[in-house]
């Protein structure tokens, strides 16, 4: 009996952009649509509207902001005025420079985006970066997040949507602090990733 050997999987773009990492989380969802349609829907989903309409998103983001607000109160600091929200937030519109940036795309199959910051303490700080400088960034005290939305055919007229977020930390002391944060927060981050994918698939 001859067993057919499936073809080797195509390499992932995120493997080239951030091959080494200290933590990762991956979630999947099935879309009742061809892969090309699912990819366009994923990149066109308004994440700001999703966060506004989904009560679970609102609760989890509020919990994440508690340490920052507590430091403001305990330190007697004036509350910082929040920046006015954009009209919408879609992955297809990500810029090549700023805080959250487009790092690369395999059109129709995978989009990689990311940010660099310090997000495991009471004060969240994001760096202004550009896509070409992401891979070589090595300043101590920071974490590098590379996230990928990818799509593959999944049977007849369906697609598998995947969302992976990888974090690499730039020095051992910060890595230890980040991993303590990660152990506590990763279940909630997984919920956010899954609800994002479910909304994209829907």
Gist of the model:
The chain is α+β, with helices and mostly antiparallel strands. It is 36% helix and 26% strand. Strands 1, 3, 4, 5, 7 and 8 form a 6-stranded antiparallel sheet that branches. A two-stranded antiparallel ribbon has the order 2-6.
Walk me through what this model shows.
This protein has 202 residues and is of the alpha+beta class. The protein has a single domain (22-73, 96-201), classed as Alpha-D-Glucose-1,6-Bisphosphate, Chain A, domain 4. 36% of the residues lie in helices and 26% in strands. It has five helices and eight strands; from the N terminus they run αβαααβββββββα. The strands form two sheets. Strands 1, 3, 4, 5, 7 and 8 form a six-stranded antiparallel sheet that branches. Strands 2-6 form a two-stranded antiparallel ribbon. A hairpin with a 6-residue loop joins strand 4 (110-118) and strand 5 (125-126). Helix 3 (47-53) crosses helix 4 (55-74). The protein starts with 12 loop residues before the first helix and ends with a helix.
